[in-house]
Amino acid sequence: MAASGKFVGRRTVWQWNCRGFKNKKVTMVQYMKTLSKSKLPDVIALQEPFDRAQLPGYVACGSPCECTRKDIKVCTLVKRKTAFLDHSLDISEELDIDHNRIEVVPCIGNWKTGLFVLNVYNPTSKRGLTHNFGALCREAMANAASSRLLICGDFNAPRTQWGYGADSPEGKKLAELMDELGLVLPNEPASHTQIGQGACRDTSPDLSVWSDAGAITWSNTFEDLGSNHRVLCMTMGEDRGKMHGCQKARVMYWDKFREQREREKQEGPIEDIGEWCRELLADVEKATKEIEWPDRRKEPKGGDRPCGSVDDSVPEPSMVDSRLAHFVEAKKSMQRRASQQKLNRKIRKKIAEINREIEAHCVRLCEQE
């Protein structure tokens, strides 16, 4: 069911199964500070936050059943100053899939139709669960009418089509439903969204289902921010050719620099200031390393800004904290080793320890601001 409305502006949606948002909030805040304004998401669809999520610059909305504020399975964050409506679905059939739906209201002169985002969490298979995707998707599409619809979340429906080794009954039903309704899956099967624990392989339970044939770019950030699920990014209304990957960030290893200067320390006054400066710069270069960091693309000059691209209330990204960058680099290095040594428990424990150190350091950074 392809929508006929004009799609001119740009919206960015993140989805992430955070496995508890409370302790990972500060990590996400620091990660978002490394991004340019154009890269900040308009909507963040969280699964398994457990508590009602709160994030600076965003408004939280969730399902009506979360009055206890505990064991919340889905929560959607919308950027402040973004007009949206919180909708509920009227489904007569019994559902065991947690969901929350919002509508991002179109801006005059940018979008001619709205964007519906359906955030879902389907628990893993247990006796008695119906996994009724059909009733949920049909009702969501009927309510969206000619507007775009993005269904994203943790489906827990294994299927070889999206990177699993075998099919499950839920995965087969979901694939047949997508074909029946004309839904598109922009996920890349080789880009797994969940990190396997122990001897388990990496999988892709997190899916992004789109109701239109074009105007969407799906990407895996490969950032887990302390969860075993990665943050996924969907950009609607921007060509793939305009998207940028990671850039290089130069990080100074101060301990290495001090050791180098101590070894080359000369007694007495400096005789040749030019030679001394060249040696100093050479030591700086030896103690500096380039690491991959998210793209900090600048805003295009001139012309009107696309809808949803920039929020003037959000500050420009600051420089990367060197200690945080060291932690991130160490974690990625350990994750590469873990992918090759699945049975090595020491590596998994070390990754968990680094995650705790990253969280503690992010707390200190947030307190300093």
UniProtKB/TrEMBL annotation:
Record-annotated Endonuclease/exonuclease/phosphatase domain positions: 116-231
Basic and acidic residues bias (residue ranges): 291-304
Coiled coil: none
Organism: Rhipicephalus microplus
InterPro entries the record matches: Endo/exonu/phosph_ase_sf, Endo/exonuclease/phosphatase
One Pfam family it belongs to: Exo_endo_phos_2
The protein, known as: Endonuclease/exonuclease/phosphatase domain-containing protein
MF-aspect GO terms: catalytic activity
Region Disordered, residue ranges: 291-319
